[in-house]
């Protein structure tokens, strides 16, 4: 691993960093270190908060807690102002995925920084490989490869921060409980916003503002009241509208995919097949009787 981990060092080489996610409460980038084994080291400093997950390679990381060897699966946790050094004593080159999470959102997920340590969200700089963290990383990269909604990426980034906070013994920031009627009213406002703007790029922060809640607590209340996450509900709305257009119009499948909010045709087809059980083209051609028989046969099996 070279310099500029989590956007904290001088300008990286032109091909070392690539933005994967969109701007929002959670952004994701890929870092490929070009340095060879034995490359010189020098002190560096994190300037922003980030969670870096090592995908491949081996490198040394030295912080105030001493040196550690990192390889695939390890997590490196950055606090603003923290000093560190990266070394390549055993191998050269590595690949990492970096999650940049809005600090206000991060504070909700892992709690406020301890007294006397402003903007100190992580008590440790390194975590060993954890299956839950690795699963979230894999899902986030899958979401990015599918060009899925930013809302889904934000949910995964928040879940990643909460999982790491739990490993560090940090509790999320508490919020004054709302009565069930007020909570339902808040969620209803968000549901209406999703229904109205399902073809647009909806973001967690925007939906939370509509609901009058912070993003972290909005996610929890929305899931509690509806049984699904906002991203899941958005997907269902888009697929539901695609079903109507497939059966009621002769418009091309690609046109329908873009109109209901999917970024590309392959993502639409994969999502439709997962949600409905067949491809959009097959659903369009299937008669009601054949479809009913297919569903009954699936349930019987």
What is the overall silhouette? Answer: globular
- CATH architecture of the largest domain, by name, is Sandwich
Number of discrete domains: 3
SS field, number of helical segments: 11
Strand content: 15-25%
Helical/strand content category: alpha+beta
From N to C, what is the helix and strand string?
EEEEEEEEEHEHHHHHHHHHH
Strand order of the largest sheet: 1-2-9-4-7-10
What is the arithmetic mean of pLDDT? 84
- Report the end-to-end length measured between terminal Cα atoms: 51 Å
What is the rounded Rg? 22 Å
Largest sheet: 6 strands, antiparallel
Protein name: Helix-turn-helix transcriptional regulator
GO molecular function, one term: DNA-binding transcription factor activity
Region (Disordered): 1-22
Organism: Pyxidicoccus fallax
Characterise this structure.
Keywords: DNA-binding, Transcription, Transcription regulation. Residues 188-286 form the HTH araC/xylS-type domain. This protein has helices at residues 103-110, 131-145, 150-167, 180-196, 204-211, 215-226, 230-248, 253-260, 265-276, 280-285, 288-300; strands at 17-19, 26-33, 44-45, 50-57, 59-63, 66-70, 75-78, 83-87, 94-101, 126-127. With 301 residues, the chain is of the alpha+beta class. It has a six-stranded antiparallel β-sheet with strand order 1-2-9-4-7-10. A four-stranded antiparallel β-sheet has the order 3-8-5-6, with no helix packed on it. Strand 1 and strand 2 form a beta hairpin.
């Amino acid at each position: 691993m070279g310099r500029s981990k989590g956007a904290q060092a001088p300008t990286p080489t032109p091909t070392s960093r690539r933005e994967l996610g969109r701007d929002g409460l959670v952004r994701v980038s890929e870092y490929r270190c070009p340095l060879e084994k034995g490359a010189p080291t020098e002190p560096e400093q994190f300037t922003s908060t980030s969670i870096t997950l090592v995908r491949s390679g081996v490198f040394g990381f030295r912080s105030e807690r001493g040196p550690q060897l990192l390889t695939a699966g390890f997590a490196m946790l950055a606090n603003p102002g923290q000093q560190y050094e990266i070394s390549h004593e055993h191998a050269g080159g590595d690949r990492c995925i970096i999650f940049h999470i809005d600090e206000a959102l991060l504070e909700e997920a892992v709690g406020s920084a301890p007294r006397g340590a402003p903007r100190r969200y992580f008590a440790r700089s390194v975590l060993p490989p954890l299956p839950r963290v690795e699963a979230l990383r894999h899902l986030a990269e899958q979401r990015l490869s599918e060009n899925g909604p930013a809302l889904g990426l934000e949910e995964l980034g928040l879940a990643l921060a909460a999982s790491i906070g739990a490993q560090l013994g940090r509790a999320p920031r508490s919020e004054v409980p709302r009565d069930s009627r007020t909570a339902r009213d808040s969620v209803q406002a968000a549901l209406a916003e999703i229904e109205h703007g399902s073809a647009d790029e909806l973001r967690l922060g925007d939906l939370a503002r509509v609901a009058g809640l912070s993003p972290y607590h909005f996610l929890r209340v929305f899931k509690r009241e509806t049984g699904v996450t906002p991203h899941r509900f958005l997907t269902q709305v888009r697929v539901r509208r695609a079903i109507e257009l497939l059966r009621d119009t002769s418009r091309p499948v690609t046109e329908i995919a873009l109109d209901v909010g999917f970024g590309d045709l392959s993502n639409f087809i994969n999502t439709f097949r997962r949600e409905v059980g067949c491809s959009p083209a097959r659903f369009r051609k299937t008669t009601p009787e054949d479809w009913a028989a297919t569903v009954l046969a699936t349930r019987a099996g």
